[in-house]
Amino acid sequence: MSSKFDHDVIVIGGGPAGSSFARVAAGAGLDVLVVDKRKEIGVPVRCGEGLGSLEILKQGFVLPRACYSIEIEGAKVYAPNGKSITWRGEDTAGWVLERKVFDKWLCELAIEKGARVHTYTRAVGVVKDEKGRPQGVKVSHGGKEPYEISAPLIVSAEGMESMIARELGFKTVHSLYDVDTCYEYEMKPYNHENLIELYFGNEAAPRGYVWIFPKADKKANVGIGVGGLVQNGTKQGGIKGADPKTLLDAFVKKDEQLKDASTLLDFGGVISVGSPIDEFTRDNCMVIGTAAKQVDPIHGGGIGLAIDTGIMAAGTAIKAHERKDFSKNMLMEYETVWRRQKSPTLANRLKLRKILEKVSDDDLNHIFNTLNKEDLQKVMSSDFAPVAMKVLAGRPQLLAVLRGLMS
Amino acid sequence: MITIKHDGCIFCVGCSSVCPASAIEAVGTRMKTYPEKCIDCGLCVKVCPANVICLYKGVKDEKDLPAGAR
Ligand SMILES: Cc1cc2nc3c(=O)[nH]c(=O)nc-3n(C[C@H](O)[C@H](O)[C@H](O)COP(=O)(O)OP(=O)(O)OC[C@H]3O[C@@H](n4cnc5c(N)ncnc54)[C@H](O)[C@@H]3O)c2cc1C
Ligand code: SF4
Ligand code: SF4
Question: Are A197 and A75 in contact (CB under 8 A)?
Answer without folding.
Answer: yes
